[in-house]
From TrEMBL:
Organism: Brevibacillus panacihumi W25
EC numbers for this chain: 1.1.1.49
Annotated InterPro entries: G6P_DH (IPR001282), G6P_DH_C (IPR022675), G6P_DH_NAD-bd (IPR022674), NAD(P)-bd_dom_sf (IPR036291)
Originating gene: zwf
Entry annotation: catalytic residues: 242 (proton acceptor)
Function according to Swiss-Prot or TrEMBL: Catalyzes the oxidation of glucose 6-phosphate to 6-phosphogluconolactone.
Keywords assigned by UniProt, alphabetized: Carbohydrate metabolism, Glucose metabolism, NADP, Oxidoreductase
Any one GO biological process: glucose metabolic process
Pathway noted in the entry: Carbohydrate degradation; pentose phosphate pathway; D-ribulose 5-phosphate from D-glucose 6-phosphate (oxidative stage): step 1/3
Protein name in UniProt: Glucose-6-phosphate 1-dehydrogenase
Residue span(s) of domain Glucose-6-phosphate dehydrogenase C-terminal: 193-477
Length: 480
């Protein structure tokens, strides 16, 4: 891999502590980082080098415990991390940063390859990109890449505006839009599952599949993020990006070669075929919910409206469920049900593909992809109960990978971006088409044309989400 400098904006933030440094440390231990490699950790706080490094050390101790990390190599890792204090709103500061980076690259014999990672508030994205350009930092003789976190805009217009501004500095091929669900190992395995297994490949279409259910439920509430979340809601925070990406990855035809270009073309054909929702359709196909007080694992928790920083009459959705159709011949008539919510009764992301029932078997075959926190797959079949002729019983076959050896999504995505592989990043066309699909829902929510159903914290969401499936003769598979 090419030697490179990683400029991490937002290095003192929560994401860097919880996800990025642990991922980089594990990559370092697994020798997956390029050599030489250097991280310029940019933050606003007036911290000394040693203070910053102790904080990174603490976050590694806190968030790398799940794997048998070799902490004796921590000092060697920290040697690669240099804290750089700066106000990213000051254009002048980028000139100094540029000089600093150039001299550091010279000392470390690093070629002119730069990875800019923006782990900052999205309202800073465009300004930072502009300053990278005007200071000369983004003009390299090698490659330059921009990694950005979601949210990518808050609606179609703002996403387009942001994309235009970033496009003035970076080409589409240089922009790596992170959807961390695309880095989850089981999501990345979906293509292989469908393409190399005729037993799956053959039935992955409407003659055999009754419906697809995609759930991303969380037990946490809005936590410290009410300022962001109250403006965002589950529809923008989870459905527009993560859930739609899971639906697309499930429905996508697997191309002969899994190159970024071919995958992008296949994903695009799915997303273009998502049946648009008209004004009236939103009421019929979308359920909006918000948690009221309840309990999680026996501990009482307050209602969303009572959370610190949330407007007392907030109409923000903390739960959303939607029915989606993909108008491609192989998915004709197959509903995709998506649902996500905070303060539900379990933390679980899974994709359940329900096959059509045979006449004899009461329970249908299910293919369940466990995305997180547990990863794996379950296949449910029907067999005769041994010694009980005529009596069928459901049998589950489970694949449970060794959870300890599974990389985290940020490890997967950072490694891919460093290699220049864009297969598991969201292309602009996908982001734009996803915003276009959710626009009628955003409008209906904003105008309160859809009821807001309250659900007690610690439950599976509002009953209305159950009715959405019951109308079609189905139910959510809770724990198949
Ligand atoms: C983030 C959302 O993108 O995904 C959060 O902003 C959410 O609100 C998180 O909690 C869920 O991610 P995961 O990997 O824990 O399912």
């Amino acid at each position: 891999m090419d030697s490179m400098t990683m400029l991490l904006f937002g290095a003192t933030g929560d994401l860097a502590a919880r996800k990025l440094f642990p991922a980089l440390f594990r990559m370092f231990l697994d020798q997956k980082l390029p050599e030489p490699f250097w991280i310029v950790a940019i933050g606003r706080r007036a911290w000394s080098q040693s203070r910053f490094r102790s904080r990174v050390e603490k976050s590694l101790l806190d968030f790398c415990q799940d794997r048998s990390a070799d902490f004796s190599r921590l000092p060697a890792f920290l040697q690669r991390v240099e804290y750089y204090e700066m106000d990213v709103r000051q254009p002048q500061a980028y000139l100094n940063l540029h000089q600093y980076v150039r001299s550091g690259e010279g000392e470390r014999l690093i070629g002119d390859n730069r990875l800019f990672y923006l782990s900052v508030s999205p309202d800073l994205f465009a300004g930072i990109a502009g300053n990278l350009q005007s200071s000369g930092l983004s003009q390299t003789n090698g490659w330059r890449r921009l990694m950005i976190e979601k949210p990518f805009g808050s609606d179609l217009a703002s996403a387009r505006d942001l994309n235009r501004k970033l496009g003035e500095v970076f080409a589409e091929e240089e922009i790596y839009r992170i959807d961390h669900y695309l880095g989850k190992p089981m999501v990345q395995s979906l293509g292989t599952l469908k393409s190399v297994n005729p037993i799956i490949h053959a039935v992955w279409n409407s003659p055999y599949i009754a419906n697809v259910q995609i759930t991303a439920s969380e037990t946490i509430g809005v936590e410290e993020r009410s300022a962001y979340y109250d403006q965002t809601g589950a529809i923008r925070d989870m459905l527009q990006n993560h859930l739609l990406q899971l639906a697309i990855m499930t429905a996508m035809h697997v191309p002969g070669r899994m190159t970024a270009e071919e995958v992008r073309a296949e994903k695009r054909s799915v997303i273009e075929a998502m049946r648009p929702l008209g004004q009236e359709d939103v009421r019929l196909h979308v359920v909006r919910g918000q948690y009221s007080n309840g309990s999680i694992d026996g501990t009482p928790v307050c209602a969303y409206r009572d959370e610190a920083g949330v407007a007392p009459r907030s109409m923000t959705d903390t739960f959303v469920a939607a029915r989606l159709f993909i108008d491609l011949p192989r998915w004709q008539g197959v509903p995709f049900y998506l649902r996500t919510g905070k303060r539900m009764n379990e933390k679980s992301t899974r994709i359940v593909v329900q096959c059509k029932s045979s006449e004899e078997a009461e329970l249908p075959n299910l293919v369940v992809i466990h995305v997180s926190p547990n990863q794996g797959m379950t296949l449910r079949l029907n067999l005769h109960a041994p010694g009980m002729p005529g009596q069928l019983e459901p049998v589950e076959m489970a694949y449970v990978p060794n959870q300890k050896h599974l990389p985290e999504s940020y490890e997967m995505l950072l490694a891919e971006a460093m290699r220049g592989d864009r297969t598991h990043f969201a292309h602009w066309e996908e982001v734009e088409l996803a915003w276009r699909w959710v626009e009628p829902i955003l409008a209906a929510f904003a105008e309160n044309r859809v009821p807001l159903h309250h659900y007690p914290a610690g439950t599976n969401g509002p009953d209305a989400a159950n009715r959405l499936l019951e109308e079609d003769g189905f139910t959510w598979w809770l724990d198949p």
